[in-house]
């Protein structure tokens, strides 16, 4: 039974919109000002127009050029628009979005010079927007009314947008005068003034009968006594949700004292103050007593949420009896996850929650995909926060270690690994972050089964490896690289193999291990990586020789004569070099070839070792014009190839797989000596018997079936070779009869499987 992703497959609408996003350049013409215009468009369903804009923003392709398609207000009618974090200028915004009859606009954290004043004045210029707009988010922007007026613009306040019900001005330069203007809005229900420059909240009394939600996180500039603040809160008769939390990491005892005292008075005050409150968030506040919390909750039966993260009182026993009350805190995993859900945009609280989550998941033995999703979301929301990524990467490791990853949705693991790679890119010099990412990546299941950018991962790990020598981490890094290299496409492998720095790094590890004669997994992984790196990659093979790898491998071959697993990997790479005609001359060393010949002849040597030894000799002996040593040695090689191969027993285990059979083509020509032909057909027969479905179509596609037929039909072909050729052709024929279409795909990679 296959595990299905919890989110399910993408909808048809999502797939179509993604295709439109990918094809914008071909679907559009360019206006004189450089903006795009759809060449032709039907009248989009209104919701689909919103979704297209949101897709473009999410895929980071919404800018001054592409937003131009929304100037067409008849076919693309926007109502709920998000341009969050997009680089837009004031002019592009005015031309593309302001003509629409918007109900909602999220312009949080936009870049490109667009200010809050530009947005408000632009929206107010459309009479329909003045009354239609209900929700506006300008989180993270400069309002900058002064610049607008200096450039000849008219100061149009928020109060001109008479339909506003929700206004988010967190992390802005909002001041007291602007707040007074805002509070005259007749329908204002939700207001977020977190991290602003407000000094007085008295203006809120103007909307005391409509304001249902007030978010005032981290109000550092407030200049009001605690008693006066509590009085203002008490007059907000319609208030259901109050957030008066604080960033506990960036405030000392003296800075937050008035706010803490305000909270104390609110909690210990009369039950008639905010009696209808549904949620209260005081996370990060200090000097809160459990008794005050208990009294406050008991006197407000409608309370369903209480924010107590980093207050020290979230573990109060009283909460176990409050089944309908959600709490953010650190007492258990439910409280911590609730904090990660509610505080996604608040770095201080995400950081605090992750610290506690790490402790709670250190010994977890059950898959928790929902928790992993929260961790990844926190990393994505705060890409530059070292504190968050340091703890989050450790949490990712806890949640995906051992067999936990195999129970996670593949799409979630894919986004998780992608985020780990982004973290490695963003914090290249932080050793612990890099270590955490490497620990999480070092999972056979993740590396083999999860789709992600393998090329980027290999480059990041090899770069990290160059500056770290910790034995444990070195082993993991080399293991990751050895697997990733085998997963690269031909094009990626070609690019990867050009970098001589990579070759030097891996050879340095081999030399380091060989100098002390150690046999460990690090050495084996490094040899495997080098083997795969040079497979059908002449540039990499040349780099190997230029980095004096040949001399090193000759030493390893002699030093590790009792270690077949090491010898096979060494000989496997030498096979790759032997396949490159212009590099064969570098292998024409009498001592080296005689040593390889001795391995071929020795019946006590593992068949796998003899197989690779035979491959090197077969390739070198196949070109008599390029043979530079004594002809007698070549004759001996050819005779011993035939004699030795006929003694080999069939191998049940897979020890090699092939990217293609192209290197075998020269060896299967009817003019080749029998020993050369025999090694080639024995090798093909070996992999075909072990994995017929994998190689049958590749033989057909690359023309080897025709070569085998010609070889089997030729009168001078040795009977041993004819027998193996016929057997291969029979396997291919049987597979073609019984195989389904999905099995008729060619193998793309050769990798050592040892």
TrEMBL record:
Keywords: Ubl conjugation pathway
Any matching Pfam family: ZER1-like_2nd
SUPFAM superfamilies documented for this protein: ARM repeat, RNI-like
One GO cellular component term noted in the UniProt record for this chain: Cul2-RING ubiquitin ligase complex
Source organism superkingdom: Eukaryota
Metal-binding is among the record's keywords: no
InterPro entries: ARM-like, ARM-type_fold, LRR_dom_sf, ZER1-like_C, Zyg-11_UBL_adapter
Limits of the Protein zer-1 homolog-like C-terminal domain: 378-733
Family: Belongs to the zyg-11 family.
Protein name as it appears in the record: Zyg-11 family member, cell cycle regulator, like
Organism annotation: Oreochromis niloticus (Nile tilapia)
